[in-house]
């Protein structure tokens, strides 16, 4: 698949509805593939399952009472109708979310996965015309596909900042930055790294990838690939803030927060940890 089609087909707009209102974020697709035969190169591998990946805080909005399971969550496919591209919503009710969603065993990890392959397959088998969707897999993780990022490497974020996107072609917004902390290290002891990029609400849950390239490295030698490719780096989940001392007024307390124009990105390998040893919503 051409890199433009892959990047545009990987993401989806997410809308969450609770008893008190709605919110939106970004998600992307992740595939579990059949085992690779080490004796074969470039083999076709079956998609055994597919998951919608986003942030835990997108799936479970915070309220005064803590995290709450939404009444519904909607993600979208792209469909052709009378020559135009439109969103095709797929809505999961609360019971479906409870049975399909998985979280990391560490509740601090702001990543979740929702099983969706059957939902996508049912729509595609309907006979209507859908644009190709695309999912990354563990094959796309940095180091698994001969792309090895480092601090100051280019990073690309694919999502829907403040719900903004190309409404005619129904494609996401792609923003760029650089890896701003040591790659592979757990920043502040947590399994994430930082990127230097100014992002906005609605970008939560966006996939973060390396800048597409056709130049790869193997055994210290450079090769030109047939198609540009990228590494799956992680999942964007917002900006860290520094809270200052409270300012007290007669009937009001103000706590000022300072940002750093950097974003938190949870490492991509956490997705496989969720799929193999995560917990269900019913267990939280």
CATH architecture: Beta Barrel
Rg, Å, rounded: 19 Å
* Secondary-structure element pattern, one letter each: HEEEHEEEEHEEHEEEEEEEEEEEEHE
Oligomer status? single chain
Provide the CATH top-level class. Mainly Beta
How many structural domains? 1
Mean pLDDT: 89
Helix content: 10-25%
Q: What is the first-to-last residue Cα distance?
A: 38 Å
Q: Kindly state the number of beta strands.
A: 22
Proportion of residues in extended strands: 35-45%
Q: Return the structural class.
A: mainly beta
Report on this model:
This protein has an eight-stranded antiparallel β-sheet with strand order 7-6-1-2-3-9-8-22, with helices on both faces. It has a six-stranded antiparallel beta barrel with strand order 10-11-12-21-16-13. A hairpin with an 8-residue loop joins strand 8 and strand 9. It has helices spanning 3-10, 56-59, 94-100, 117-124, 270-277; strands spanning 11-18, 21-33, 47-54, 62-63, 66-67, 72-81, 84-93, 101-103, 112-115, 154-159, 173-179, 192-196, 207-210, 213-218, 221-229, 232-236, 241-243, 247-248, 253-254, 257-259, 263-267, 279-280. Helices cover 12% and strands 42% of the residues. The chain is globular and about 70 Å long. It is mainly β and 284 residues long. The model has no long low-confidence stretch (mean pLDDT 89). It has one domain (3-283): Beta Barrel (Thrombin, subunit H).
Would you summarize the structure shown here?
By secondary structure, the chain is mainly β. Helices cover 12% and strands 42% of the residues.
């Amino acid at each position: 698949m051409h890199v433009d089609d892959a990047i545009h087909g990987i993401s989806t707009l997410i809308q969450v509805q609770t008893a008190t209102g709605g919110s939106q974020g970004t998600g992307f697709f992740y595939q579990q593939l059949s085992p690779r035969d080490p004796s074969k190169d470039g083999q076709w591998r079956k998609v055994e399952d597919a998951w919608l990946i986003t942030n835990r805080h997108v799936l479970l909005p915070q309220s005064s009472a803590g995290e709450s399971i939404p009444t519904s969550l909607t993600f979208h496919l792209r469909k052709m109708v009378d020559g135009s591209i439109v969103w095709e919503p797929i809505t999961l009710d609360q019971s479906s979310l409870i049975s399909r969603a998985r979280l990391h065993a560490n509740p601090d990890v702001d990543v979740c996965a929702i099983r969706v392959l059957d939902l996508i397959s049912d729509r595609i088998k309907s006979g209507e015309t859908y644009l190709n969707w695309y999912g990354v897999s563990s094959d796309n993780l940095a180091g698994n596909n001969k792309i090895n990022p480092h601090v100051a490497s280019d990073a690309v974020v694919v999502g829907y900042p403040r719900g903004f996107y190309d409404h005619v072609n129904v494609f996401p917004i792609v923003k760029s930055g650089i890896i701003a902390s040591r790659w592979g290290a757990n920043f502040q002891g947590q399994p994430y790294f930082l990127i230097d990029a100014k992002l906005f609400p609605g970008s939560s849950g966006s996939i973060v990838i390396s800048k597409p390239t056709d130049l790869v490295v193997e055994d210290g030698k450079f090769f030109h690939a047939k198609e540009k490719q990228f590494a799956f780096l992680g999942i964007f989940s917002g900006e860290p803030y520094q809270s200052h001392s409270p300012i007290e007024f007669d009937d009001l307390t103000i706590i000022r927060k300072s940002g750093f124009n950097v974003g938190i990105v949870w490492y991509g390998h956490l997705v496989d940890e969720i799929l193999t040893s995560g917990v269900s919503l019913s267990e939280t």
